[in-house]
Amino acid sequence: MNFDFDAPALGKLLAVGTIGLFGLTALTACDDETDAAQDAPASAEAADADTDEAAADGTGHESPLPAGSTVEVGDWSLALASIELDATEAIMGANQFNEAPADGFQQALLTIEGTYNGTETGALWLDVALGVWADGAFYDSTGCTNVVDGGLMDAPDVSAGGTASGAACVEIPADADTYVVYFEDFLSFDAERRFVAID
Q: CA 69, 117, 74 angle in degrees (round to 5)?
């Protein structure tokens, strides 16, 4: 079968074909953009989740692990069992020789639980230091010598896999905006602190 086209008809046919090709290309591009737009929120949410996880690594006061987290410090796996930011009255009542906090300060009571992962003997009071970061400053439990009920020094020594718990007093500013608990290896001079948020 032969088709005879004159020049004008052939020109129209080519023009229609070109327009159709451009239309198909435009539709394909729109589909690609729609797919990309649909994928974008999921990708953004995943990126935000990765950023949040990276930020909360416990290595700094600005990136503490969530409250209740367990941290590895030296040969211990440690967790904050409880904290009372202003336990001054209870601490003062625990021993008649306990000293009141300085003006503008209060005494916090921290109770920690730990599992010893070493191979010898672990002593919670000797192996672990803890404290509170408050508005840019570190307040260590060694700065408060008051006697507290169930203190760290009363915790028994344990062997591998053993658990122990104890409480400590930390004197902190009474009007700080932010408080974060930290743990560190007491016997190491270059150990990093591990930070955990407070509810």
A: 70
The reply to whether the predicted model has a pTM over 0.90 is no
Per-residue pLDDT averaged across 165-192, rounded? Answer: 93
- Identify the residue with better confidence: 13 or 95: 95
Structure confidence by residue, pLDDT tens digits, 1-33: 444 444 444 344 344 344 444 443 443 444 444
What are the φ/ψ torsions at residue 7 (nearest 5 degrees)?
A: -60, -45
- As to burial, measured by CB atoms within 10 angstroms (0-12 exposed, 13-18 middle, 19+ buried), residue 147 is middle
